[in-house]
Amino acid sequence: MLFTNRECERTLYDIQGTANSNYNECEFPQADAEEMNYMECEFSNDPEGFCLFLFLRTDVEEKNYVDIYVWDCMLYPEIYHRFVIANGVKPDPDTEKRLLYYIREIYKGNGNYNKYYINEFLAKAKDTFPEWHLEDYSYMYLAEALSNMYFASFRSGIRELLYKSELNHIGFNLDAVYEYDVLASSPEWLLGKRVPLKLLRILNKPSLVYYLYAQDTIDVAIGIYEAYSDYVTDDKLSDAQFEYLERLYMCGGVYGGKGFSRAVFNKLAGENCADIVDLYGRFLEAKREVEGIGIRLPQPENVEDETIRLETYIDYRNGRAYENSMVSIRAAEAEFEYEDNQYLVRLPKSGEEMCMEAIKQHNCLGEYVYRHAIGKTTIVFLRKKSRPDKSYVTMEISENEIVQVFKQCNQYPDCATYSFIERYAEIKGFDYNPHRLIRTNSWIDFLYDAFGIDVCDTPVELDKYLLEYDKKHSKKVG
Fold first, then answer.
1. Rounded average pLDDT over 153-172
2. Nearest 5 degrees, angle CA 460-CA 461-CA 462?
């Protein structure tokens, strides 16, 4: 006869137990008439499946216990099952099987219960039973919470050790752990050989615990820890941080063209998607091909845009002959060029230069190369004469109107720059309306044009000098 691991644990730890039908109602008072009526009413409103009700109570000796009622339409002739979880109470095998069955069903998303009440119950249970080492569970992890309460409440073997070591996700998924040792005297010896507790804490997440399910992934996890434990000061890594370490480990210590980067590792804190690791890898590879620019490592929310800008630049630098040649031909169109004693305006010399401008300005200029090349729109660079090679302001001119004016990160330039652009437009015969320019591509523009609502008349959106310039220009043109 084959025994399950749990049956072996019960035998080894001499768990004889008490059947749930034999709970002493004097020792563990059950629901009163009002509570029974409430449960029956709730169950009758949704009789399909089962309904779960949880109570925190105090026994005759003023000791706390958890009182569980499962009303199940499949029970006959009974209406509900009752389970008690209390310190030192050992249920018999049949009671345990029934309770664990319902816990598994809850994990699968089955069962009906009041989510708001469950959240309150779990918060109170954590305060009531500190010896069970419950984490801040919510209703989304109700199955894990119930399993934690149950196995931490009595001498249940390795599961008790895991839960009381706050390795709750490993404890909940223990049956899937590869050849775990039912005789393990501490969590470190769970796998039959010593595994650092810090590594187990790192893997104690729903998204990382699967590393313990097979020998090859266990070996990878241990290899990662041994290679990078000196760099890891916290036992709470994000999924993306662990993924980054795995990429390094599997690629011989090099990812994105370089070894371990504390900057990348720190940026990945709080990120739980592997895609972000791919993006940083692409960014580092692209940055290696673009020397001498001094590009900073972007924040996670910006890394995709920055990576695309670099890759677009490399694409134009290494190819795109047609677009580059057309942009170069357009650079000779003198009607767009102008300068005074402070500023100058010129056309880009190539698609590569436009893409480099996008990198320096942190904008989407690279998307405009083809349209500029074929003359569908015109992009010009506005520079300070004192530093003609330094990126300053980018302008778009379309259908004889200046339609966009932005400096780095799509910020508005200062009043002196707008005054120069006003003179430039007047000399070149371009339509110019700063009131529209400072609202281009924003909901502010829509509100002003559609409803006449001017929400920009506050220093929050524009500084007072730019507002004054805007008003003066509006008065001047009537």
1. 93
2. 100
Q: What is the pLDDT of residue 457?
A: 42
pLDDT in tens, 37-81: 999 999 988 777 899 999 999 877 789 999 999 999 888 788 899
What is the rounded (10 degree) CA torsion for 106, 109, 112, 115? 90
Distance in angstroms (rounded) separating the CA atoms of residues 204 and 374: 56
Nearest CA among 304, 294, 303 for reference residue 267 = 303
Distance between first and last Cα of the chain: 97
Phi and psi angles of residue 51, each rounded to the nearest 5 degrees, phi first: -115, 140
pTM of the full structure: 0.79
> What would the pLDDT profile of 93-124 be if each residue is shown by its tens digit?
889 999 999 999 999 999 999 999 999 999 99
Residue 103: partners with Cβ closer than 8 Å, 6 or more residues away = 143, 146, 147, 150
**Cα(191)–Cα(209) distance, integer angstroms:** 13
How far apart, in whole angstroms, are the C-alpha atoms of residue 215 and residue 182?
A: 17
State residue 257's pLDDT score.
84
Rounded to the nearest 10 degrees, the angle between the axes of helix 215-228 and helix 239-250 is 90
* Cβ contacts of 154 within 8 Å, gap of 6 or more: 15, 87, 88, 89, 90, 160
Alpha helices in 331-414 (DSSP H): 351-361, 369-373
